[in-house]
Amino acid sequence: MSRIVYVNGEYLPEDQARVSIFDRGFLFADGVYEVTSVLDGKLIDFQGHAARLERSLGELDMAAPVTMDELLAIHRDLVKLNNVEEGMVYLQITRGAAADRDFVFPDPAATPSTLVMFTQSKGLIDSAAAKTGIKVISIDDIRWGRRDIKTVQLLYPSMGKMMAKKAGVDDAWMVEDGVVTEGTSNNAYIVKGGKIITRHLGTEILHGITRAAVLKMARESQMEVEERPFTIEEAKAADEAFVTSASTFVTPVVAIDGVALGDGTPGPVARRLREIYIDESRKAAL
Ligand code: PDD
Description:
By secondary structure, the chain is of the alpha+beta class.
């Protein structure tokens, strides 16, 4: 069965959906996106994703083509139309297709922004990565300076994943000025003496929606949290490590640059946080 996707007001079979070759998302990576996970056919933390989307749009002076309530309705329609029980909804808004290629932003009154959305069905709870943990390498963070805006400029993260694959591991943690920023598509954490350490928010990292939820739940569960930079050396000497994102929830990291953490299996803090996060998010899903 062909997937039903959403393009600028229409629900269409995926092979009939079209975006102009002049679309600025395609020509300039002039677009923002969100990935919202689905459990039991319901959206996890839609409000968080909608709030970050509005912020990303605002930072780039880009118009939202629909209201956040309409966006929620489209998310729900797509989940229903495609019978998604577990997986995610991808959303992308670009500055639209101007008449010609021009670096200058087009007048939004004449060039409406483009909105596309699609679903991906995928088992998220019973993932192999959650059971065994993932291995990462460290790479230089050479991305642009506004990583707090969730733009579709994902070439370097994609290259990072390929570097990891070539090294025989699962992902890469990026390092800038001697400290870890984040994973290629997730936020990075270490645990030492029971304390959860993760980089503080700023323009250097994406403000993960899962990160915010997990840190809140950790604090509510009386776990100690410290938001500060850490080096790869400190990470290698940690008791455990993990990553968070909408599509992986909390996933343990068991090795960094070939150095096993603890006994090389998922640690207790990461396992517990994953459980708490999935339980709580399920209860609050829309
Ligand atoms: N990536 N950092 C980066 C660079 C990311 O791309 C992501 C998410 C995160 C985690 O954010 P959140 O918890 O809101 O998903 C952190 C998504 C899942 C992706 O690109 O597929």
